[in-house]
């Protein structure tokens, strides 16, 4: 097995250089109404803006998937890549920014490096400009690598999947209220509309509504369960963006021009972040997932594999447990259960630090197991390999 070993200082330099490129915001102009300004990187630790990836005034190179060629869009319509009204953004497993104009069923995939845009036309999303219930305002990347979007009323829950270079769109159905929600309804404007959605490592979704209410959505049952209201934010704070940071907490933002806040998902307690205090943010996106540690299936607290979202086809094995001795085996399985990679390593004095190169693995989700000499599973963890 080929190994790629890098000096520690080079890895640290690379980590710092890319830190700003994990977290993105859909930013609007400083007006009371929704007017798209740009997509930009955000530092979720100090709350400051980074590089502007694409703006309302950028030159747009749009490639139509259905027409298999470049297209020129009319910027005076709702159906264009720089439409005035936008409130959805996701950062996919291929390092693209995915978004939808509010009054359009069009889906756009922006390559953050080349600035080229793929237009995904679809007849699945039923959006009309005059029906606020139909507008898509929540979008995120799921742990399986697909993009998920929810309209205001929860009557459409879209899954946007990629196979090769082709995207497909499916409607998963209508999300309804859990019987326990009572007056905190997911489908009523005052309590459940707008905001954003994040995913966890267990296949669930959390909708942060504009009112500050939080709902847990299970894709299998299509139920939204009210789990509480965010505390620690101003009474008039409109929650319009949410994304998971590298610590596993949620960062929220407002379209009204306000500070960013970090929210503990387990307590829903928010604390204000330093930095810019008047950003008009309509949506947030990141590469992280909530409850990632909880989903690891780690039998031993001091054994880990990281990162779980793999950009450079390198993962790290870390062992710091005196009870683990001898040889261990790392196995990688695809979603069909096929063993696609196997590598042995030796633990000395309960300690191991080793990088593994995921040779020939295509983009997608995988399950990684670490077993001891007896075959006992010490760790089972999902990873997402990007291309």
TrEMBL record:
Pfam families attached to this UniProt entry: Por_Secre_tail (PF18962)
Source species, domain of life: Bacteria
Keywords tagged on the record: Signal
InterPro entries: Quinoprotein_ADH-like_sf, Secre_tail
Annotated signal peptide: 1-19
Residue ranges of domain Secretion system C-terminal sorting in the record: 305-383
Name of this protein: T9SS type A sorting domain-containing protein
């Amino acid at each position: 097995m080929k190994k790629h070993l890098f000096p520690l200082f080079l890895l640290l330099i690379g980590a710092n250089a890319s830190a700003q490129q994990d977290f993105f915001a859909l930013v609007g102009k400083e007006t009371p109404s929704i007017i798209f300004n740009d997509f930009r990187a955000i530092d979720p630790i100090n709350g400051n803006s980074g590089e502007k990836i694409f703006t309302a005034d950028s030159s747009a190179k749009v490639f139509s998937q259905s027409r298999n060629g470049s297209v020129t869009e009319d910027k005076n319509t709702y159906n264009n890549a720089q439409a005035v009204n936008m409130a959805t953004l996701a950062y996919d497993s291929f390092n693209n920014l995915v978004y939808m104009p509010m009054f359009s069923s069009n889906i756009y995939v922006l390559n953050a490096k080349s600035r080229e845009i793929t237009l995904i036309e679809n007849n699945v999303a039923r959006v009309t400009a005059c029906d606020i219930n139909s507008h898509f305002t929540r979008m995120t990347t799921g742990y399986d690598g697909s993009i998920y979007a929810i309209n205001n009323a929860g009557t459409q829950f879209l899954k946007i999947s990629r196979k090769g270079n082709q995207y497909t769109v499916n409607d998963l159905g209508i999300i309804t209220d859990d019987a326990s929600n009572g007056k905190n309804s997911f489908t009523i404007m005052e309590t459940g509309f707008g905001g954003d959605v994040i995913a966890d490592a267990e296949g669930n979704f959390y909708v942060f509504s504009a009112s500050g209410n939080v709902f847990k959505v299970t894709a299998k049952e299509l139920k939204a369960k009210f789990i509480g209201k965010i505390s620690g934010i101003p009474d008039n704070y409109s929650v319009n963006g949410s994304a998971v940071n590298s610590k596993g907490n949620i960062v929220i933002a407002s379209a009204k021009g306000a500070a960013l806040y970090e929210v503990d998902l387990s307590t829903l307690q928010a604390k204000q972040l330093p930095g810019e205090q008047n950003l008009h943010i309509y949506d947030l996106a990141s590469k992280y997932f909530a409850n990632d540690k909880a989903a690891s299936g780690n039998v031993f607290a001091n054994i880990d594999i990281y990162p779980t979202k793999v950009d450079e086809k390198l993962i790290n094995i870390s062992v710091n447990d005196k009870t683990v001795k001898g040889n261990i085996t790392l196995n990688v399985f695809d979603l069909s259960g096929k063993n696609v990679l196997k590598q042995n390593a030796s633990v000395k004095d309960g300690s191991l630090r080793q990088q593994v190169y995921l040779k020939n693995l295509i983009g997608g989700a995988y399950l990684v197991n670490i077993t001891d000499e007896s075959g006992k599973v010490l760790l089972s963890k999902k990873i997402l390999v990007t291309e």
